[in-house]
Amino acid sequence: MTVQPAGVPAITLQFERAQDGPLVDALIERAFGPGRYAKASERVREFATFAPEMSVCAWSGDRLLGCARMWHVRVGGQPVMFLGPFAVELGERNAGFGARLVARACEAAQAAGQSHVVLVGDEPYFSRVGFAGAPGGAVILPGPVDQRRVLVRALKADAGELSGLIEPA
Ligand SMILES: CC(C)(COP(=O)(O)OP(=O)(O)OC[C@H]1O[C@@H](n2cnc3c(N)ncnc32)[C@H](O)[C@@H]1OP(=O)(O)O)[C@@H](O)C(=O)NCCC(=O)NCCS
Q1: pTM of the full structure
Q2: Per-residue pLDDT tens for 35-79?
Q3: CATH code at 2-168
Q4: Which numbered atom of ligand 1 lies nearest the CA of 96?
Q5: Substitution candidate for ligand 1 out of 36, 42, 88, 92 with most atoms within 8 A of CB
């Protein structure tokens, strides 16, 4: 779909296709550099199941401007989605593309009947797009992480609170 609010350049949000993989990987590499492999969220992605049907790419013509990948995992046995990597090309930031990528990915997860999206990220940014800290370190990652960065967004009114270890779906 093409989205064009007043005053913002047109972008097309599209679910990730197999052929997009190399461009998405290159964008993530530019945004995070090699240090990203040390992140706790990378440990999760090593065992998580990629969900291209909920992973979103932002395009301007054939130019990839941003991406938000989604993964199937379980928390305390409950199926949930894990979001990341999430990046917007330097030079295209602060135009709302990031917020729209997250919103679209969460919308797709909600439409698929998912109850929660979990991620590791900066609360000041993600609180703007519906995420909040998992209470009391309830969601446990398979490695060291600043627990204040473990954030959850509920996708259903009766979703309940998540609790437990993040494990493979
Ligand atoms: C984070 C990122 C995807 C946001 O993309 P974006 O398209 O610029 O996001 P939006 O336009 O929706 O939001 C921009 C706003 O968020 C703020 N913001 C960006 N990163 C932030 C952060 N880490 N913490 C707090 N606020 C942040 C910007 O200052 C801007 O604020 P303003 O609206 O008051 O001017 C982009 O900055 C990026 O790719 N960063 C490098 C990779 C990264 O850190 N990814 C997230 C890992 S969890």
Answers
A1: 0.94
A2: 888 888 999 999 999 999 999 999 999 999 999 999 999 999 999
A3: 3.40.630.30
A4: 11
A5: 88
